[in-house]
Design goal:
The protein is mainly α and about 220 residues long. Strands 1-2-3 form a 3-stranded antiparallel beta sheet, with helices on one face.
Length: about 220
């Protein structure tokens, strides 16, 4: 079975006419018969294929198929996170001397932070989710080196997520779409965050969150 662009399965690899049979020798050596293949797609590009197989020629039902698709989605999430972190590290390692370029680079860091925060609720693996949150925390704490730090403020994770979107200039509707929430829910989180931060406007809330080391 060559690289596929959509999930597929065969009941008997040996006799199937719908596959390339490029790996007949390896498959025969393992005695594999029923095979399922699910592509791992990141940003519309196939990065790999997740295979599962049995040594008996049986029809693979929806339950098996769904489990394989779910496993591939977990891999996709992990790759997205890895790509975001790698991109972020590339930005932060650049030696920037022009103040305007430095500002642009810092905005890239903030945008990466927002994207990572938006990914957190979608990550199923608890270990990966905690590692992702730790990366977000390190990015946010970088604000302390640039501005006086405001201590004693604690926001809920979703309040931070909403503020990260607001900081990038999005509307409540766009923030809701990015975070998978309703616009009314976003408004509620924003009001709560503003109250905790003692802010009267969205901009004041973002500035206060950065001073508190909650946003980069």
């Amino acid at each position: 079975m060559r690289l596929v662009s959509r999930p597929c399965a065969v009941t008997d690899y040996r006799s199937s006419r719908h596959i390339s049979h490029e790996y007949d020798v390896a498959v025969a050596a393992e005695g594999l018969r029923s095979v399922v293949a699910v592509p791992v797609v990141v940003r519309r590009r196939v990065r790999g294929v997740l295979y599962g197989a049995l040594r008996e020629p049986v029809t693979l039902g929806d339950r098996t198929f769904d489990a394989a698709v779910a496993a591939a989605r977990d891999v996709e999430q992990a790759l997205v996170v890895r790509d975001e972190v790698q991109q972020l590290l590339t930005v932060t390692r650049e030696q920037v001397t022009d103040p305007r370029t430095a500002l642009e680079a810092w905005e890239d860091v903030r945008e990466a932070h927002r994207e990572l925060r938006a990914l957190v609720p979608k990550v199923v693996d608890p270990v990966l989710r905690e590692e992702l949150l730790a990366v977000c925390g390190r990015l946010a704490s970088a604000a302390g080196a640039r501005t006086p730090k405001l201590c004693g403020v604690h926001l809920a994770p979703r309040e931070v997520d909403v503020l990260a979107c607001v900081a990038s200039g999005t509307t409540n509707a766009v923030a809701a779409e990015r975070l998978g929430l309703r616009p009314e829910t976003v408004k509620g989180y924003l009001r709560s965050a503003m109250r905790k931060l003692g802010a009267h406007t969205r901009l004041e809330a973002v500035v206060a969150a950065r001073r508190a080391g909650l946003l980069p």
